[in-house]
């Protein structure tokens, strides 16, 4: 089990019988360890990733240089020439010009003309600055070709917010042919707002492209890979799956701007960059410098899934652009390329190295298949146009790959005309898994804990693909990742787990947010250029993800499921691998509640482990300097055959006890 919880001996005392007299309410529960026949799917608790809030470029993808290949709409965005006097009547120190190439994909490069080496420099600002850490090593690379003059060395310097040099390296260059050059910089100082400064040793003309800086210390040590602290937080969730690359990113504002996986694989310099659809979506947070370089592409997503021990879950365009934007449709007669993309993706993931796309996977360094089992068709589409297109995808995919499970969509909302229509049509088509999304007030989550109690057990299974409590309103910039929201999500998740016969996959959304580059709140993990912190919502997800169990068992009060009686919610599972029973109890009230859990069917050990999230302040939030709401672990002693404890106010408690 992946865990980083801190033990807290005092917690055992707080939950012991010595304090039971303070309880304001007594609950009598029955935990029946009889096998219900309902399995908890290994995919029950997973991760949803979308490149929103600087989630990929400027976030998880550890590249520090913004617009490294000069392909942004403004090709010099992110770059400056502080000492250039290109338009001066006096002698020019030098200047850079973006040149169109004859390449089909990487269409631009930069030509640097240096007339006075002592007076010219080229500077990149990074993504809201560059996070540089003292004593860390940074890999520098670029493509270059001399054109004229006597430039033989190029100096790369990391500079701090005030312009002071905090690390440098000099790279020798030669020849007119394009070459890839590499070097390393060791930083001498930590700075969240660093920049890259490039200077030249002599005069001349030199062409450059793909100017890049990565920390050497990346996740799993992969060269030019992922930011270590962010990927580690994903690993610590113990996810059962990784859904990627979105989200509305999949759809695009227009079909031309949709995510096309084939353009995201192969050499990074050959991946075709596009604008990020979130860059100007919201008036409250315009981000016109937000683009997708696809350095984090489909191969890297599959690789990350493998590293996390999670099932990969790619989602592809179904031929409909985001219906909140243009809703542009690919005509049915022109749908074949979209469908072929889906079929080819399965071959890329699972095909032998002798197949066309399996060979491409092998060429990227992964000859073994990724063992893809799931694929999503569309994101939040709705209406007859979606159903018509889904039918074509389903027929083509299952004709060639009958064992692949297809995830369809019920639209962006958890109720209403579009939702009802999608479920009716998809159920009639024997759809396998339907993706439901809900962003709502914390109270909604508590009120809907029984949402799946009456779903057809023989019908399509449910993927709760995107959900998060909104403390103000959907997409409000004032939403908070506070304890009230997290507590309500914890209560709701008891209903997801209790209905594991229907609900097979769940994931919070969105995942990451940069404090200076976000568009949407709330979010699971917040980052700046140097650090990250986990929200209370994250720790709720972690409690469930690290304690999923394998088999559902019954926990009741008065013969009924615990779904809000006295403000309490509960669910229970057994874990075949560890031989334990795992009970999750959520107290949403402001009062501690004495809780006796009688055990039927089997005997338990005398002592167990207890993990708790709690705060007396519903508005409590975590931040970079203080995580106020974090899990605490302790041991507890059973009272004979009972788990006889007090559940503190506003708490999520997980009990793990060995079954004799």
Automatic annotation (TrEMBL):
Domain Alpha-L-arabinofuranosidase C-terminal as annotated: residue spans: 465-651
EC number: 3.2.1.55
Catalyzed reactions per annotation: Hydrolysis of terminal non-reducing alpha-L-arabinofuranoside residues in alpha-L-arabinosides
Keywords assigned: Glycoprotein, Hydrolase, Signal
EC supergroup of this enzyme: hydrolase
UniProt keyword Signal, yes or no: yes
InterPro entries: Alpha-L-AF_C, ASD1_cat, Galactose-bd-like_sf, GH, Glyco_hydro_b, Glycosyl_Hydrolase_51
The keyword Mitochondrion is annotated on this UniProt entry: no
Lineage top rank: taxon: Bacteria
GO biological process terms, semicolon-separated: L-arabinose metabolic process
Entry-linked Pfam families: Alpha-L-AF_C (PF06964), ASD1_dom (PF22848)
One Gene Ontology molecular-function label: alpha-L-arabinofuranosidase activity
Residues making up the signal peptide according to the UniProt record: 1-23
Alphabetical list of SMART domains matching this protein: Alpha-L-AF_C (SM00813)
Annotated family: Belongs to the glycosyl hydrolase 51 family.
PANTHER family: ALPHA-L-ARABINOFURANOSIDASE 1
Protein name: non-reducing end alpha-L-arabinofuranosidase
Native organism: Flavobacterium akiainvivens
